[in-house]
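User: I want to check something. If I give you two sequences, will you return the structure for each one separately, not as a complex?

Assistant: Yes, each is folded on its own. Here is the first sequence with its structure:
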Amino acid sequence: MREVVIVEGCRTAVGRRKGSFTNYRADELAAIVLEELVTRSSINKEAVEDVILGCVTQVNEQGGNIARTAALIAGFPIHVPGVTIDRQCGSSQQAIHFAAQAIASGDMDIVIAGGVESMTRSPMFSNMGTTKPSGKLTDKYEIVNQGISAEKIANQWGLSREQLDAFSLRSHKKALEAIRRGKFEKEIVPVEVEGEDGKLRMMVVDEGPRESTSMDALAQLKPVFQEEGRITAGNSSQMSDGASAVLLMSGDKAKALGLKPWARIIARTVVGSDPTLMLTGPIEATNRVLDKAGLTIDDMDRYEVNEAFASVPLAWLQETKADPEKLNVNGGAIALGHPLGATGTKLMTTLIHELDRINGRYGLLAICEGMGMANATVIERLSHI
């Protein structure tokens, strides 16, 4: 199997739902990161052999294979194909895995993996309409809203409302500190948007983090999914708009092109998990990917575990015995937002930059997914300078 490396990664800032990207089509937003990716890496668009994008709500402007349309908008030649995939919240992480598999097997040398989601223009579940789950499915499993799953996880792992809110406050504080220190500046592609005053400006800062967030403010929020529940809008991920992508290639191809990669992919896995609890998959996915890598959780210098709800990473921490000081150190989806199809490559982009910043060696990315699944990836930082 050939070595697979990450040569470059970039993302837009994440916009709040009905925020700065309200008037931006998802295909045009994705095209911006595709264009920027090849510009940063100085490769020819003609050399890209596939564009794999994750997108969950494939309807309206996000329908019709947005990977292909975005690549054409970005000026890729017509011989460069594109394919759009849906593995729920882990869609663009799965795009990385599919790209890596194509490269490792020798089928391809250079592939772009990424994702996009406009939760403003293509609202969550709008692709489902009034469709209900099959009775043949509900006869076998209790199919519930993800928020109910998050409540069940909080109950099973004994997580209090105060613990959930405290984790959420941490996410905001970490994100705000990262923004103040300019940690995201290198990974974000500026996008020109129209402000409320009608003037054009460059969107370069994630809109989600709130300076006003406090334990008192979070405590005032009512539960969303159960009357006496613990899951609120404050300890859940934000609906968001954004796009992201990474450029992968074989180690030999990168060397031949004179490129210095950020990282290599050490191991990857995807698992199914209980479709009722739904969001516990990262626990088993982490165990499996570390076993494949021949490493332990203590070997990881940083972990990004998507904050779909605060109960998800908190249960993950309990089960893996991971160091909380290495988890989502620059904030997570509770503060920064969760543009579904874009989140995987967004987090991977942040992870490679963070490992480089601290001279770390190994990083772990794990994301829970709808209907009970999870992807996990282990990378090893390379000196790219």
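And separately, the second sequence with its own structure:
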Amino acid sequence: MATVEIYTQPWCPYCERAVYLLTRKGVPFQEIDAPNGSQARAEARQRSGGRTTAPQIFIDGRHIGGCDDLMALDRAGRLDSLLGLG
């Protein structure tokens, strides 16, 4: 199974949606609390090539993008193989 990291912030509906999808798929993931101004948020920005929005999602160290990117991968049928599910 893939290693999944997701940088989130409180009260973020996109973060909740991404976490829900990963949970529904039964994928273990590390959720990293990264509110604006935090060291974790700076790390997410650096790792993602400058993206400032939440969530930022990484699968096996590879930047996937945000919630919309995760959902698009799922709709295209490509997410399960990245997660090691298929």
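Because they were folded independently, the notes below concern the second chain alone. The chain has four helices and four strands. The longest strand covers residues 4-8.
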